[in-house]
């Protein structure tokens, strides 16, 4: 019998407040291509589905498919490449850990909880960010937007990682901040702890969740119930 417990974490807006650095990268690209810039608060509503989706939603206020309105594929690819390039070089200028994250990771590690990151950020950027902000070693696996042929809200993004960790879906928990995380967890049959002020346009009352938290202070009490 597998007694192992697994916790999956989203990255942007869950473990790390990355909005200030994402905003700078976003605005750098928008300035270059003649589109309006955004504030940090506006960026928080656009994150979660990858760089292309963020730029597309920023320009047209809709989802990734609207990015298709730029007919020139070359220009679209250039914009995403420029964003990733600039962001990669400036990934932890102003990004900070969400309150209580490190303390919780230490607590979970002491209890032999398996931990992994499931993010729609590109894998290499995710690993680089986790290393530079000092929490990479807590995780046994990092699955990014391009790790598999699918990503959140596809539940396989979560279930595949649990499988890789030799875990059990029935002994797993997701911690995220948006409907992308919540929908993936719901479909996978995994309870989700949702952060209140997430990177999403939606109100927390509109997003499926089992528990609601402001930050990671005191989250141990919730997790204990599942162990």
What does this protein look like?
Helices cover 40% and strands 12% of the residues. The protein folds into two domains: 6-17 and 95-224, Rossmann fold; 19-89, DNA polymerase, domain 1 (Orthogonal Bundle), CATH 1.10.150. With 227 residues, the chain is α/β, with parallel strands linked by helices. The model is unreliable at 62-66 (pLDDT under 50). The chain has helices at residues 19-33, 40-44, 51-60, 73-89, 101-110, 123-132, 156-164, 179-188, 220-224; strands at residues 6-9, 16-17, 96-97, 114-118, 141-143, 172-176, 192-195, 211-213. Strand 6 (172-176), helix 8 and strand 7 form a beta-alpha-beta unit. It starts with 5 loop residues before the first strand and ends with a helix. The strands form two sheets. The protein has a six-stranded parallel β-sheet with strand order 5-4-1-6-7-8, with helices on both faces. The chain has a two-stranded antiparallel ribbon with strand order 2-3.
Short description:
The chain has 227 residues and is an alpha/beta fold. The chain has helices at residues 19-33, 40-44, 51-60, 73-89, 101-110, 123-132, 156-164, 179-188, 220-224; strands at 6-9, 16-17, 96-97, 114-118, 141-143, 172-176, 192-195, 211-213. It is globular.
